[in-house]
């Protein structure tokens, strides 16, 4: 309506609502009629009553000032480009037919999301004079998925009502008065569905009223487009109209009782005399406007559902003013109680979820970091306990899960948490490994002793039982000798597989090995002149193991030297080195041997060709062997030497 706004406050306080509006109820309809022949809405009357409270009146004035300021300069911060309104539908029923179906409720939500987004099918049928004014109001609705107490909800409450019907006196909004208490209007749009007495289709509370009664009330017969809905109010436009009021939109004719002096405070809707009913044929003129005629297809007229098709751009501006900073419905626009998968400006979902280090009890979950995420929610649960997800939170893109059940399939979800909402879930699964149940030998439990640092103390002259549990199991032991008894004998017997034995000095240098084949006994003697400490290592050759048979390990110390029989050989590792490098004419190789050994030396060029070979015999004690290289060309060579099982390779330069 194109009335000027210079007497805005006066309009709001006097002109607009000074006349009692009588159009909401059709007097031809009997009190018990189930559905009115013409549209009825009690919102204007309700607003008039509401504004009798001086506090509300001031509040309404302030809201209108903010609205007009926004229209004059439509800027200001919105939380989202498209406002999303979480909805709770409170169904009050005295008869089972009034307990409308989820499908009927869902149909209404779908209609709202078409009408407020300019996605309704009637858009192409709007007369050319008004088509360009039809607005995408950029407001969407969804049933809440979280209740005020944080519980999961369908966004629908159902309450048996002892009252057979309700009126616009708000009893429906109070549990104590036979209705149902509102959920916080800062988080939800409350819609009460009930049988309304007389021929009332619905009413709304404009912004600025009491929190306990904020929302809209709709007849169960005029909600949605399926179920028990009755024509001609069977296309969901009663809720579109009432939510228009809830968003501070007035009736398009200005509620002036047929005069042309009222206004809906919207600049792009034509001045209109009184309401239109039914399904008018365009054009319909009033207030001397023969240019465009009435915008009777506007949701804020009183025409039938099928005849309605648009909000105007000016109406959209009024609605949007509520959601910018300082707007009367700013809070609900930041609510996250709706059932959308993710807000428009929320963060993306984590990607590339990886599961690693899975054991019988643990698993590590990692994912790519999400830009803008402040933390991540991680849920995991055994598939067979789907109702009991464990929730954990982490600020890093990795989480180690512990205390898992062994050999159990798990489901895991990860969600990024961002300031404006959470991302969608990434879902994956993993299965924990079978728990390793260690076989325990009769008299000892040496595990874990896989490293020098975990070496188990081996008591002298006492046999010990243990096992090589798995293929990479090593068993380390610690042995000490004394100055009185400096000689050592280590015996490994009753081995179920081809286990071998290494002996190291206190500096962890390998000093002796016993590496017989099969399950022959392994024995090392090491005769010294004073007390010392040693490490003994038992391991399976080529990874062999037996997790259900024990080996026996014995250490003996003595003041007389130990000698070993032929199968119990002493095998001391030679200390070998050579010089000089680069070589000119000769290489000198020095090594220490504990007895007589045949030693082979091979010299290869970088092509892998054997260029020199020599067989020598090392004697007990220090040996020095010379290799003549003066016939060889300058360059890089590989020197290999072998002594029994020992093999060593070194690089050598010849430079003359
Ligand atoms: Zn109305
Ligand atoms: Ca071990």
Q: What is the percentage of strand-forming residues?
A: 25-35%
What is the CATH topology assignment of the largest domain? Collagenase (Catalytic Domain)
Q: Which architecture of the largest domain per CATH?
A: 3-Layer(aba) Sandwich
> What is the 3D shape?
elongated
Key descriptive features of the protein:
single chain; 656 residues; mainly beta; Collagenase (Catalytic Domain); Immunoglobulin-like; Jelly Rolls; six-stranded mixed beta sheet; five-stranded antiparallel beta sheet; 6 helices; 11% helix; disordered N terminus; binds zinc ion; binds calcium ion
What does this entry look like structurally?
The protein is mainly beta and 656 residues long. The protein folds into 4 domains: 9-334, Collagenase (Catalytic Domain) (3-Layer(aba) Sandwich); 354-431, Immunoglobulins (Immunoglobulin-like); 452-558, Jelly Rolls, CATH 2.60.120.380; 576-654, Immunoglobulin-like. The protein has helices at 8-18, 43-50, 54-72, 102-115, 237-246, 313-321; strands at residues 83-93, 139-143, 156-160, 189-194, 202-204, 216-219, 277-278, 302-303, 351-356, 363-368, 375-382, 390-394, 398-401, 409-418, 421-422, 426-431, 456-457, 464-468, 474-480, 487-493, 499-504, 510-514, 522-526, 533-540, 546-558, 576-579, 586-593, 597-605, 610-618, 621-628, 635-643, 646-654. The strands form 8 sheets. Strands 1, 2, 3, 4, 5 and 6 form a 6-stranded mixed sheet that branches. Strands 11, 12, 14, 15 and 16 form a 5-stranded antiparallel sheet that branches. Strands 17-19-24-21-22 form a 5-stranded mixed sheet, with no helix packed on it. The termini are far apart. The relative contact order is 0.08. The model is unreliable at 2-32, 340-345 and 565-574 (pLDDT under 50).
């Amino acid at each position: 309506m194109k009335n000027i706004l210079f007497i805005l406050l006066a309009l709001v306080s006097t002109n607009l609502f000074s006349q009692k509006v009588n159009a909401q109820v059709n007097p031809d309809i009997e009190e018990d009629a189930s559905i009115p022949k013409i549209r009825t809405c009690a919102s204007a009357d309700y607003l008039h009553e509401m504004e009798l409270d001086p506090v509300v009146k001031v509040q309404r004035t302030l809201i209108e000032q903010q609205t007009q300021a926004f229209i004059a300069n439509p800027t200001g911060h919105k939380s989202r480009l498209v406002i999303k309104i979480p909805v709770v539908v409170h169904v009050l029923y005295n008869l089972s037919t009034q307990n409308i179906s989820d499908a009927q409720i869902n149909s209404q939500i779908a209609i709202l999301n078409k009408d407020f987004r300019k996605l309704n099918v009637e858009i192409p049928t709007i007369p050319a004079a008004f088509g360009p004014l039809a607005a995408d109001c950029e407001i969407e609705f969804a049933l809440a998925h979280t209740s005020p107490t944080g519980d999961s909800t369908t966004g629908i409450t159902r309450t048996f009502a002892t009252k057979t019907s309700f009126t616009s006196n708000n009893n429906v909004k109070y549990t104590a008065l036979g209705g149902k208490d509102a959920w916080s209007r800062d988080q939800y749009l409350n819609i009460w569905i009930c049988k309304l007495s007389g021929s009332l289709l619905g009413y709304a509370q404009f912004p600025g009223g009491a929190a306990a009664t904020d929302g809209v009330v709709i007849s169960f017969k005029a909600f949605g487009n399926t179920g028990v809905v009755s024509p001609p109010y069977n296309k969901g436009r009663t809720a579109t109209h009432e939510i228009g009021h809830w968003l501070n939109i007035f009736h398009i004719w200005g509620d002036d009782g047929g005069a042309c002096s009222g206004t809906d405070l919207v600049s792009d809707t034509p001045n209109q005399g009184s309401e239109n009913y039914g399904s008018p044929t365009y054009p319909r003129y009033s207030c001397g406007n023969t240019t465009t005629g009435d915008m009777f297809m506007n949701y804020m007229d009183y025409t039938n559902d099928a005849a309605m098709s648009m909000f105007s751009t000016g109406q959209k501006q009024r609605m949007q003013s509520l959601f910018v900073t300082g707007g009367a419905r700013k809070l609900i626009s930041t609510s996250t109680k709706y059932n959308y998968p993710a807000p428009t400006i929320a963060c993306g979902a984590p990607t590339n979820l990886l599961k690693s280090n899975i054991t019988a009890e643990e698993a590590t979950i990692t994912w790519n970091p999400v830009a803008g995420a402040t933390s991540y929610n991680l849920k995991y649960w055994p598939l067979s306990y789907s109702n009991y997800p464990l929730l954990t939170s982490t600020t890093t893109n990795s989480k180690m899960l512990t205390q898992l059940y062994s050999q159990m399939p798990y489901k895991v979800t990860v969600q990024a948490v961002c300031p404006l909402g959470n991302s969608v879930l990434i879902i994956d699964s993993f299965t924990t490994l079978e728990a390793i149940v260690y076989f325990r030998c009769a008299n000892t439990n040496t595990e874990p002793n896989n490293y020098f640092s975990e070496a188990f103390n081996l008591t002298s002259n006492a046999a010990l039982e243990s096992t090589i549990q798995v293929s990479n199991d090593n068993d380390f032991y610690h042995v000490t000798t004394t100055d009185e008894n400096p000689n050592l004998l280590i015996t490994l017997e009753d081995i179920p597989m081809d286990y071998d034995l290494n002996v190291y000095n206190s500096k962890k240098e390998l000093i002796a090995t016993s590496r017989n084949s099969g399950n022959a006994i392994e024995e090392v003697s090491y005769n010294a002149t004073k007390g010392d400490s040693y490490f003994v290592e038992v391991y399976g050759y080529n990874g062999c193991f037996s997790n259900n048979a024990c080996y026996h390990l014995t250490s003996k110390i003595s003041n007389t030297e130990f000698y070993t029989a032929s199968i119990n050989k002493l095998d001391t590792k030679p200390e070998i080195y050579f010089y000089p490098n680069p070589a000119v004419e000769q290489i000198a190789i020095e090594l220490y041997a504990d007895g007589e050994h045949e030693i082979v030396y091979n010299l290869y060029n970088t092509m892998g060709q054997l260029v020199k070979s020599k067989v020598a015999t090392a004697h007990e004690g220090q040996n020095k062997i010379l290799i003549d290289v003066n016939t060889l060309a300058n360059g890089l060579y590989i020197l290999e030497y072998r002594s029994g099982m020992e093999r060593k390779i070194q690089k050598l330069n010849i430079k003359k």
